[in-house]
Design brief:
mainly alpha, two-stranded antiparallel sheet, 4 strands, 4% strand
Length: 338
């Protein structure tokens, strides 16, 4: 079902009005005409129930354009393979505009003038200089075609596309690895990675790194800072060994630490995401009788009163901590939500 009408800002556009009619028919299909359903207009935001007629009037003043999965109106969380039309966009700007992607990463890691930074000497780059110095290698990748005569995909865009499909379709690491090995054998002249590991390693410079810190297997302490050189747990009642065997350097347990600052900085590299990060201050409709965003809460407002200088800049970020298990990039068999 086409939902491009939801992003139209001209609410008198015939395509938008036809989309509203289509949505109303879908939402109230098989239901009592007098029943009330959550209204997805920009004022109600699915928090207020409205009748069919009132909802139609409300939607003529705008719909929440992020509400693309109509879960409050009969559509399931999981997609139906028989009914969903999965489109692979042929627009070069979506998957093949790697220069913009690389520019975002360069700005996030080295600043706005990163192209002229002395740290990025593409001619002097070697594998021994570390991951940060290997970033320039990716600068030339958008210019390399996947195989002779291929104008649509480079090696970089092909790998990004494959990993994107893996995430969207919940492919396992093993299935992705088998697919890449098969494609590598069938198309030996193409610049296709021979394994999932090789594909991930190739684009590692594009990602946000995590720090691996050895930990006590009984969760007593981290082998970090003053404990970095220890081979056993510093807890006198534990003393568990750090490594799996005396002659091995393989730790029994590892903590993966994801530094927060670079991830917050990355959010402001893209102008669309940066605009969304300021939404609570610049575009939010303040209604004292309705809470649709944490900014409407008493806790948020009390924080603003006590920290006025912090609240003045809409780019400042408030952090909330929640933990309910996690499944990064769909690589585990279990699915969790936070």
């Amino acid at each position: 079902m086409d939902r491009s009408w939801m992003s139209i800002k001209n609410y008198l556009d015939p395509k938008y009005l036809d989309g509203v009619d289509e949505f109303i028919k879908f939402a109230f299909l098989g239901k009592d005409p007098n029943c009330k359903l959550p209204c997805p207009c920009k004022v109600c935001n699915n928090f207020e129930d409205q009748t069919k007629k009132v909802m139609a009037n409300h939607l003529c003043r705008g719909i929440v354009d992020s509400y693309t999965r109509w879960i409050y109106h009969g559509e399931g969380f999981e997609s139906d393979d028989e009914n969903d039309d999965i489109e692979i966009n042929d627009n070069d700007s979506d998957f093949d505009s790697m220069e913009e992607l690389l520019n975002d990463v360069g700005v996030a890691n080295f600043g706005k003038s990163w192209r002229h930074s002395p740290k990025l000497d593409t001619g002097a780059c070697t594998e021994k200089e570390g991951e940060a110095s290997r970033f320039p290698r990716l600068l030339s990748e958008p210019e390399k075609s996947l195989y002779p005569g291929c104008e649509k995909y480079s090696k970089l865009s092909f790998i990004v596309h494959i990993l994107h499909l893996k995430t969207m379709n919940r492919w396992t690491c093993k299935s992705t690895d088998m697919l890449l090995k098969f494609l590598h054998q069938v198309f030996p002249t193409a610049l296709i990675p021979s394994s999932y590991y090789e594909a991930k390693n190739f684009i590692r410079e594009l990602g946000l790194k995590c720090e691996k810190i050895h930990a006590c297997e009984n969760d007593c302490a981290l082998f970090w800072n003053e404990n970095k050189g220890l081979d056993h747990c510093p807890n006198e009642k534990c003393k568990a060994p750090r490594y799996k065997s005396p002659n091995s350097k393989i730790p029994r347990k590892v903590l993966r630490y994801f530094p927060l600052k670079p991830r917050l900085q990355r959010l402001f590299v893209n102008k669309e995401i940066a605009r969304d990060m300021r939404w609570h201050k610049e575009r939010r409709v303040d209604n004292e009788n309705m809470m649709r965003h944490p900014a409407d809460s008493l806790a948020w407002k009390d924080f603003d009163r006590n920290h006025k200088s912090f609240a003045e800049d809409p780019r400042n970020v408030r952090l909330g901590l929640a933990s309910d298990g996690f499944n990064p990039f769909g690589t585990m068999s279990n699915s969790y939500s936070i």
